[in-house]
Amino acid sequence: MPDPAIGQLGTGPGVEHSGSLETRVARLENWVDYLQNYHAYPLMPAAYTLTAASSLFVGGVTVPWQAIRPLLQIPADRWDGWLSGFVNPNSTDVQIAPCYIPDSGTAIPLMSVTTIHTVGLTKVWMGPFPVLGPLAQAKGVPKGENVLAIGMLANVVTNGKSADFIAWTLWIRQSPTRS
Predict the structure, then answer these.
(1) Residue 109's closest CA among 92, 127, 90, 134?
(2) How far is Cα 162 from Cα 49, in angstroms, rounded to an integer?
(3) Tens of pLDDT along 89-147?
(4) 129: Cβ–Cβ under 8 A, 6 or more apart, which residues?
(5) In a domain, 179, yes or no
(6) Same domain, 93 and 170
C-alpha cells in the first residue's frame, strides 16, 4: 500500500477514520492488542516411525516462557494452535492429538483425537486448540509453568503395525478474543 500523500489520512487495520472517537479507539486497541501473525514451529527434525499400540509423545516445541515473557510486548493469555503434517500408516487407525506436557510429565490432550483410517501417505491438520489462557486451563493446562511444552500424541492402534510421521508443524497465533 503506498504512503498517503501529505495532508491525507492513511488507511489500514487500526487506522480507519470512520465512527465515533470511542469506536476508533476501540478498533485501534484491538488491532494493537491482537497479532494476526502466525508463527510456525517444526515439531520434528526428520521423519519419525512409530511402532506401538500405546500413545507416545512424538514431537513437540518447548518455549522458555517465564524467561522470555518479560521481553515480549504481547498478551500472554490467549493463544491458539494448529498441527499439520503427513502420516503414512501401513495399517489403518492411527490416532493423533495435540497435547500439552506439564512439569508432571503426563500429557494433556488439547482437543479430541483425530483417527486416520487410510493406509498410505495422508496430509492431516488439526485445530484450532487452546495453547494458553482460560480455555487451555479448562482442559487442564497449568498456569505459570516456566517452560511451555506443546506437541503431538500418537498411537498406532493395531499392534505390530507402524506409521511414519513426516514434516509436522505447530502453528500458533494469538486468538482474536480474550479466551
Answers:
(1) 127
(2) 7
(3) 887 788 999 999 999 988 899 999 888 888 999 999 999 898 888 888 999 999 888 88
(4) 80, 81, 82, 98, 110, 111
(5) no
(6) yes
Which amino acid belongs to residue 84?
S
**Residues 171 and 81: beta-carbon distance below 8 Å:** yes
The residue range of the domain holding 27 is: 1-33
Is residue 167 within 8 A of residue 40, CB to CB? The reply is no
Q: Is the peptide bond before 89 cis (omega within 30 degrees of 0)?
A: no
CA of 138: how far to CAs of 132, 141, 145, 179, in Å?
Answer: 10, 7, 16, 11
Q: pTM of the full predicted structure?
A: 0.71
What cell numbers appear for 65 in the block?
516462557
Residue 117 is placed in which grid cell? 483410517
Looking at the fold, whether 79 and 159 belong to one and the same domain comes out as: yes
